[in-house]
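Bench notes, afternoon.
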Amino acid sequence: MAEINITNAKTAWVNPMIYGILLVIVGVCMVWFKKDALKWILIVTGVMLIIGAIIDILVVVTTKLPIVGIVFPAVMIVIGVVLIVLPSLMADVFMVLLAVVLIIYGVLNVIASFLHKDDGIIAIAFGIAVGILAAAAGIYTLFNLDSTQDIVMIVIGVLTIVIGAVQLIGAAGLYRKYH
């Protein structure tokens, strides 16, 4: 039994290494291709939604579940098709949603800062500043969808590269520990 654990431990570094390499590659593609990478992500997401929905429909049909179980997968197929056919429009829709969320967050943060008068002047000032910056970022996003898509993809790409690098460091540590 202990031998199986040693064998598993000796190969434990492989998955984090593969994930790390893939994350770094995807992150670099996001940073390099920006808006185009976002469109490809939306297209791939659409394909995955359609495949998952078809599997769900097959499960409903083959297990004789109530036909109502097909409604959600049907909606997922429609969303998947829209993501595949209109990735640019959907990217804009996501940016508008991001803008609205940022504006709402910013306004609520400013209001919350004024309501929490006992938190101290630094906390209140910081809350107001963060709220104003978030609302400003949301307003900027609404009027600059294309450049915001680039910025979002760069930020997410860099974060993905960092996560991939952490995976690679962890994999190297596991390799050194058992080899």
